[in-house]
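User: tokens in, sequence out, please.
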């Protein structure tokens, strides 16, 4: 070949054509096979891969030349021009382009594809193709191919109208050159059925993916749309150098996509970033390295060199795809700890066989390597508290949000868990220009050996880090991460397990309070509270018990008081959560009222530990709320003898001056007063003034009160509570005025004085005497019911003692006897009204009195207030007899109880000894027909039954004990009422 021929045809395309044409001429079958192969690749294998295949060739060329790859797609007069930088076309490349089955890539590991058939994609849009390069240009043409077939008398298989020759088997030289900035350019003359704008739009949609898949390419321009790829090695800013890279792709305008890339020995993994944080990629396909038809559901894009079928759409059978999962855990560890779970495949059905194999391999890789962020153990103080808590101080240089847990904890099934602690590593919020670097401690563990507590807070994590072994950090413990942690087979901890682990821990009370505070947000329903039923609780006496339900809270205590009769929570451990979990709230008063303490006092009343605890609690208690049986507590007196507290008095107690000389009380030891204070001693029953016995639901008179049995026998039913002043029988009688003032001055005893049915008022009415008179026979100054009959109680505050004085509404045996005697005493001068009311009160009480014990008076008090001989007196039982019988002979009370009064006084009733007869005539009428009847019923309580008889003058004749005829204003005889009419009213016209 001459030099001119070489210059005109640098790649020897004439010889290549001659060889192909000879083969077709000699073997029509070969022509048919070449045509079928090219047709199949165009219609199926490369139907939508035009830019992809050309970009792969451009990437290979750029990599071969060691330059930045650039691809430019232009539309020029209807033709599509695709130019690129890199190694120009060479003879091997021409051979590959015309061979259909051969590849011109001698180093498959350095190139994208393995086959030279990808160029067939140009046939999907064009029948006239040019490849222009700086080393020479060639042309493929359907028309020239037909012409060559005809010129060489090659018979085409089948009808010529339906036969399509293989265009890419025959190449012709051309003198066209690529643009100045390009090394190679592909020119496609589009067929008439191809829309150029739609074609370019489809190419623009592929540009980002191609820049991701082909790292040798740095830019792709399609028309006016430019896509540029830039890459940064994040490892340069990390002490561990884990190989994480940041890939940014800038599109038209402000469009930008940011990805993090991690490369293993067999694959490239890409994670998209959103707002500077990595997120799971959408469902995608296997990229080998460009898009295939193998659908994947992985959280990251996989770009790998894997054996593919010739059309590069499916993986070859038997390909070892699971090997691509190797070092995937290192990719996870390379991510910021709070973002690592984004790489965990979510549960679901595999989208393809390859997807299923990859998912299984990735999950197995993640489950068996240390990369999961766990809480690091912090140095503890002597009480078990971490030296630092939370996120650290504002000026700290290390972020405490990810700190190292110890590998071993009390949870036996997590022992031996692998924990890997790397050096402090620096992170940047990728995608956020100028973001500050933030260091953190990266403690990791194998997921299957770690534990997670859903919703874990840093407060709780700080307390549990050395108890449960490797514990997933709070940022990854939320419900949003539960699914991913389940895929990793991370052991789940619940509240019940934490409660179980708390048993036997040796921690300070403040640590326990911190634990309760950290657990409280998780107790949101009864089920959660039930799960914590076995939570350990520290007691004030140093014990650790299981279950808040058995514990007692007193949030008023400032220091621990060892209460061994009750499970009292240590005051430094008290927290509201314990009450929510069933702990019983108990103040000092409740603890001192506990039945366990009573049993303790009955068994060992002088135990010094019990004495100390009781008196320390009593100093903080309300004395009025304490039970009287605290008086069982034995305390030393001034001689050192142990006596019950309620048999002791404080030094200089006012009560001592009121008692009888032979009182059984002693004085408590003064050193005890100095140590615990007088108020604490008084609260447990040591006397200062009068003591009170209190018992709820008493069952009988067993409280050692004077005459208690007699008082109890008079009650209609057992009282719901007994509260009574004790030792009243020891008061010296001359001291009662002072004793009453003392009783009224104390709120605790003053209240008991106001209960007329209570023991205290009952006893005082019967036994307490002022000037020799029982209090129950003295009259309150404002009470006129028994005026001039009973002596008046002279006291500065009589209202406080009203219940212990004579009560008109409760006539007792003693009061009845006193009233009868006073009524018979001529020296008394009660008014007729007082006499009548007193008789009525006495008559009403007859049913409750023992008449056999009452002595009948020798004289009786009549209605006129005169004292009369009982033989000349009658009980008024019918009121109209009071109009006819002299008042000096009538004993009046209430008409309704007249028979009872007659029985009490042993007197006849007036209607039994005197009869009466109306002697005058009158006019018979009815109450409703007579105006006077209407007026009288409005003025007086008149009978409304029977007849009404009106008299001008009404006279009656008395017979029996009294004989007389008397004029009366009205009378009742049987059912007939007789009325003397008044004078006729004056007329208006008179």
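Assistant: Sequence out:
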């Amino acid at each position: 070949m001459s030099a001119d021929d070489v210059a005109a045809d640098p790649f020897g395309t004439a010889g290549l054509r001659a060889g192909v044409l000879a083969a077709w001429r000699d073997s029509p079958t070969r022509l048919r096979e070449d045509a079928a192969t090219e047709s199949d690749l165009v219609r199926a294998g490369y139907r939508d891969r035009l830019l992809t295949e050309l970009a792969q060739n451009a990437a290979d060329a750029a990599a071969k030349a060691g330059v930045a790859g650039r691809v430019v797609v232009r539309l020029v007069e209807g033709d599509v021009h695709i130019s690129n930088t890199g190694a120009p076309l060479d003879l091997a490349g021409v051979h590959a382009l015309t061979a259909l089955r051969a590849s011109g890539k001698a180093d498959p590991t350095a190139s994208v594809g393995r086959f030279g058939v990808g160029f067939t994609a140009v046939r999907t849009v064009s029948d006239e193709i040019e490849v222009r390069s700086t080393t020479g240009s060639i042309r493929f043409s359907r028309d020239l191919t037909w012409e060559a077939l005809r010129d060489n008398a090659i018979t085409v298989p089948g009808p010529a109208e339906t036969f399509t020759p293989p265009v890419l088997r025959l190449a012709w030289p051309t003198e066209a050159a690529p643009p100045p900035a390009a090394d190679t350019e592909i020119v496609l003359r589009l067929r008439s059925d191809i829309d150029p704008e739609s074609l370019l739009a489809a190419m623009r949609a592929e540009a980002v993916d191609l820049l991701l898949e082909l790292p040798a390419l740095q830019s792709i321009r399609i028309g006016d749309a430019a896509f540029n790829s830039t890459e940064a090695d994040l490892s340069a800013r990390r002490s561990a150098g884990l190989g994480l890279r940041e890939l940014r792709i800038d599109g038209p305008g402000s469009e930008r996509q940011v990805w993090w890339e991690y490369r293993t020995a067999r694959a490239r993994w890409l994670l998209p970033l959103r707002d500077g944080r990595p997120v799971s990629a959408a469902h995608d396909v296997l990229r080998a390295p460009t898009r295939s038809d193998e659908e994947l559901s992985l959280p990251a894009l996989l770009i790998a060199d894997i054996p593919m079928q010739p059309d590069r759409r499916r993986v070859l059978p038997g390909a070892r795809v699971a090997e691509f999962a190797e070092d995937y855990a290192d990719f996870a560890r390379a991510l910021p700890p709070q973002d690592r779970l984004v790489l965990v495949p979510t549960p679901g059905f595999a989208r393809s066989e390859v997807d299923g194999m990859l998912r299984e391999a990735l999950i197995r890789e993640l489950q068996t390597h240390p990369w999961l962020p766990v809480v690091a153990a912090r140095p503890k103080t002597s009480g078990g508290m971490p030296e630092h808590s939370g996120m650290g101080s504002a000026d700290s240089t290390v972020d405490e949000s990810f700190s190292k847990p110890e590998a071993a904890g009390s949870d036996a099934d997590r022992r031996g868990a692998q924990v890997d602690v790397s050096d402090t590593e620096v992170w940047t919020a990728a995608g956020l220009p100028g973001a500050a670097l933030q260091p953190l401690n990266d403690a990791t563990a194998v997921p299957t050996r770690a534990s997670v507590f859903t919703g874990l807070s840093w407060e709780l994590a700080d307390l549990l880090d050395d108890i449960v072994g490797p514990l997933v950090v709070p940022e990854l413990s939320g419900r949003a991460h539960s699914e991913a942690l389940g895929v990793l087979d991370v052991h789940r901890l619940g509240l019940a397990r934490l409660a179980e682990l708390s048993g036997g821990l040796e921690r300070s009370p403040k640590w326990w309070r911190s634990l309760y505070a950290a657990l409280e947000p998780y107790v949101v329903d009864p089920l959660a509270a039930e799960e914590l039923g076995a939570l350990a609780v520290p007691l004030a006496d140093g014990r650790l018990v299981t279950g808040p339900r058995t514990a007692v809270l007193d949030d008023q205590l400032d220091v621990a008081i060892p209460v061994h009769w009750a499970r009292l929570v240590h005051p430094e451990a008290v927290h509201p959560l314990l009450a929510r979990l069933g702990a019983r709230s108990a103040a000092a008063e409740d603890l001192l009222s506990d039945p366990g303490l009573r049993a303790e006092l009955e068994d060992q009343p002088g135990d010094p530990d019990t004495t100390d605890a009781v008196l320390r609690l009593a100093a903080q208690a309300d004395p009025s709320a304490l039970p009287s049986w605290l008086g069982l507590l034995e305390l030393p007196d001034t001689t050192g003898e142990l006596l019950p507290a309620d048999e002791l008095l404080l030094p200089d107690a006012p009560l001592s001056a009121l008692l009888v000389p032979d009182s059984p009380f002693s004085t408590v030891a003064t050193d005890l007063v100095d140590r615990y204070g007088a108020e604490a001693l008084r609260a447990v029953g040591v006397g200062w003034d009068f003591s009170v016995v209190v018992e709820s639901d008493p069952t009988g008179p067993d409280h050692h009160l004077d005459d208690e049995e007699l008082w109890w026998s008079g009650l209609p039913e057992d009282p719901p509570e007994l509260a009574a002043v004790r030792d009243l029988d020891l008061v010296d009688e001359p001291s009662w005025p002072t004793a009453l003032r003392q009783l009224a001055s104390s709120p605790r005893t003053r209240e008991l004085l106001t209960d007329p049915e209570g023991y205290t008022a009952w006893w005082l009415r019967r036994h307490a005497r002022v000037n020799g008179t029982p209090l129950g026979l003295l009259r309150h100054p404002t009470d006129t019911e028994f005026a001039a009959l009973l002596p008046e109680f002279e006291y500065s505050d009589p209202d406080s003692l009203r219940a212990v004085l004579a009560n008109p509404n409760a006539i007792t045996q003693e009061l009845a006897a006193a009233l009868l005697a006073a009524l018979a005493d001529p020296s008394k001068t009660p008014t007729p009204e007082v006499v009548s009311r007193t008789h009525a009160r006495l008559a009403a009480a007859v049913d409750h009195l023992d008449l056999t014990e009452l002595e009948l008076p020798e004289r009786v008090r009549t209605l006129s207030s005169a004292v009369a001989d009982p033989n000349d007196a009658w009980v008024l039982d019918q009121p109209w007899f009071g109009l006819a019988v002299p008042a000096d002979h009538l004993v009046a009370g209430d008409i309704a109880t007249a028979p009872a009064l007659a029985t009490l006084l042993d007197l006849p009733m007036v209607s039994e000894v005197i009869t009466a007869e109306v002697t005058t005539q009158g006019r018979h009428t009815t109450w409703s027909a007579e105006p006077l009847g209407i007026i009288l019923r409005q003025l007086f309580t008149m009978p409304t039954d029977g007849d009404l008889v009106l008299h001008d003058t009404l006279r009656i004749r008395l017979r029996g004990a009294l004989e007389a005829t008397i004029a009366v204003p009205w009378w009742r005889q049987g059912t007939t009422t007789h009325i003397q009419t008044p004078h006729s009213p004056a007329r208006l016209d008179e």
